[in-house]
Amino acid sequence: MKTRYLLLFATLAVLARAASPDPAADIATLQHQMQAGQLTSRALTAAYLQRIAELDRAGPKLNAVIELNPDALAIADQLDAERQAGKVRGPLHGIPVLLKDNIDTADRMQTTAGSLALVGQKVPRDAAVAARLRAAGAVILGKTNCTEWANFRGNNSSSGWSGRGGQTRNPYALDRTPSGSSSGSGVAVSASLCVVAIGTETNGSIVSPASANGIVGVKPTVGLVSRDGIIPIAASQDTAGPMTRTVRDAALVLAAIAGTDERDPATNAIPAGLTATLAAPLKPGALRGARIGVVRGPFGFHSRMTPVLDTLVAALRAAGAEVVDPVKISSLGKFGSATGDLLSYEFKDGLNRYLAEPGRVTPRKTLADLIAFNEANREQEMAFFGQEDFIAAQARGPLTDQAYLDAKAACLKLSRTEGLDAALDADQLDALVMFTRGVATLIDPLNGEGSSGGSSTLAAVAGYPSVTVPAVQFFGLPVGLSFVGRAWSDAKLLALAADFEAVTQARREPRFLPTAPLK
Questions:
Q1: How much is the average pLDDT of 409-433?
Q2: Which among 436, 518, 419, 438 is positioned nearest to 483, based on CA atoms?
Q3: Is 331 a catalytic residue?
Q4: Tell me: the pLDDT tens digits for 240-293?
Q5: In whole angstroms, what separates CA 264 from the centre of its chain?
Q6: What region, left, alpha or beta, does residue 375 occupy, with left being phi > 0 and alpha being psi -120 to 50 degrees?
Q7: Does residue 100 carry a catalytic annotation?
Q8: Of the residues 100, 219, 408, 492, which is catalytic?
Q9: Average pLDDT over residues 372-396
Q10: Which residue, of 47, 215, 358, 496, is most buried by count of CB atoms within 10 Å of its CB?
Q11: Vertex 311, ends 310 and 316: CA angle to 5°?
């Protein structure tokens, strides 16, 4: 009898622990609990669904999740059954993941980039990123809201706003911008509505919301992660990447989604062995002996951020890094119209190709159709800002135009040859560091997001990797530090960022305050 009671109490204890997983736990902790029988993927998935109901739909109403996967619990059950049978696919087995709403999923969810114009679209297959996550055992929990069309529709947009999803809010101060365009992914991870999320970036759309929401964001080298099945902006700069609460989680996710894909020729350039290196454990103490250059701008940051950067530089030195401070990059601020021209040309070409892909059933077939839809539905779609980017892109010619070729050549020269390559080579640096952006500004749907400065352009235009890590808080608002390196140095940057994270331990959980505590 006594033995039976002991077994009963032990079983109840396991069930109690399984019913209340820590929503902020990292992947390693959750995998250990599932392996030990203390947690199931179903219990974890159900806990996040409940948290989304309490914080995203009710409570502070973060509005980060635009749609939930109706099959999430069934997927979790299947993965639990596999674990019971002795099959574990890897570190993401049973881990709930949210995807930005510009990533195709061939399931019962939609892919709209936040636009009402694409409601009802039927996609031909999972995006390569989604397919790799499923193969790795992740539970695709739902889609996140984004700045509509990944913030490439019109002037004075409000980051985190879409016609379909409304306005996403920053969990540190609900009246502050979540930054864009992967705003919902950044907020969802910060507020622990999932374990990890996937964002996409053309220029700042992963690293900026990661910084504003106090999380880790990785913009990989362009070509490391396939863009197949992702609504495009510019093939020269587009990439998907992980958004997580720790660098180690980001490395695990990047290892799962990286790799060659015949549908994205850019992935053919991945160096041999890089994906295996990404899957290996991060090297501890990576900052010791590393040569790090500090870029102080001009990025438009508030002068109050300067002394804080000094303390972070001191922390790098204390961790054993050889620091070169400052590093000046002569091409900063010299891009002129080249970056805008390149994006405009490539957007029209890429979007029309996406919409016309065989097997894709979409209510709008061309960029011209989208422009017409927005005009016809101005009250819902253009109440706050217009579609100047759409109209400018529609006026562009083919990618054989000399204006496009000149813009592309200028972008590569300024961002690589005279930009990052020159700076890294001059002092034989392993990486550059800089603040990612300034503090989150107030949400202003009428005038758009005001600028507090940002440093994402060089890495974005070059197609080089960037990792942002929580570094400091100003009046309760987080700001990240970016580690930027050469093409294909993603694994090295992750190790450096992980060491910085361990040394500073700067991340603080959000408190869902109505406004920032400026006093």
A1: 98
A2: 436
A3: no
A4: 999 999 999 999 999 999 999 999 999 999 999 999 999 999 989 999 999 999
A5: 20
A6: alpha
A7: yes
A8: 100
A9: 97
A10: 215
A11: 95
Tens of pLDDT along 397-413? 999 999 999 999 999 99
> If pLDDT is split at 50, 70 and 90, which confidence band does 519 have?
confident
Six-digit token pair at 175? 């009246």
What six digits make up the tokens of 294?
């500090």
Amino acid in position 98? L
Q: Known catalytic residue: 492?
A: no
- d(Cα 77, Cα 81) in Å, to the nearest integer? 6
DSSP per position, 414-459: IIIIIIIHHHHHHTT-SEEEEE-B-PPPBP-TTT-PPP--B--HHH
Closest CA to 100 of 41, 172, 180, 211: 180
Q: Are 225 and 258 in contact (CB under 8 A)?
A: yes
- Residue tagged active-site, from 158, 185, 205, 208: 205
* pLDDT > 70 in the chain, percent: 96
Maximum Cα interatomic distance, the chain, rounded to a whole number of Å: 86
pLDDT tens, position by position, 316-364: 999 999 999 999 999 999 999 999 999 999 999 999 999 999 999 999 9
Tokens of 462: 């070059």
Alpha helices in 114-232 (DSSP H): 128-135, 148-151, 183-190, 207-212
pTM over 0.85: yes
Q: How far apart are the first and last CA of the chain?
A: 62
Q: Residue 165 in contact with residue 150, Cβ under 8 Å? A: no
Question: Residues 298, 333: contact at Cβ < 8 Å?
Answer: yes
- Locate 120 and state its tokens: 């009802």
CA dist list (Å): 27 to 23, 41, 42, 92: 11, 12, 15, 7
Question: 41, 158, 179, 181: which is the annotated catalytic residue?
Answer: 181
Q: How confident is the model at residue 450 (pLDDT cuts 50, 70, 90)?
A: confident
Residue 222: closest CA among 411, 64, 400, 348: 411
Query: Do residues 202 and 190 make contact, with C-beta atoms less than 8 angstroms apart?
Result: no
Distance, CA of 79 to CA of 39 (rounded, Å): 13
Phi, psi (degrees; rounded to nearest 5) at 52: -60, -40
Helix residue spans in 36-182 (DSSP H):
41-51, 72-84, 128-135, 148-151
Cα pseudo-dihedral 175, 195, 101, 512, rounded to 10:
-10
- Please give the Cα distance from 479 to 348 (Å, whole number): 34
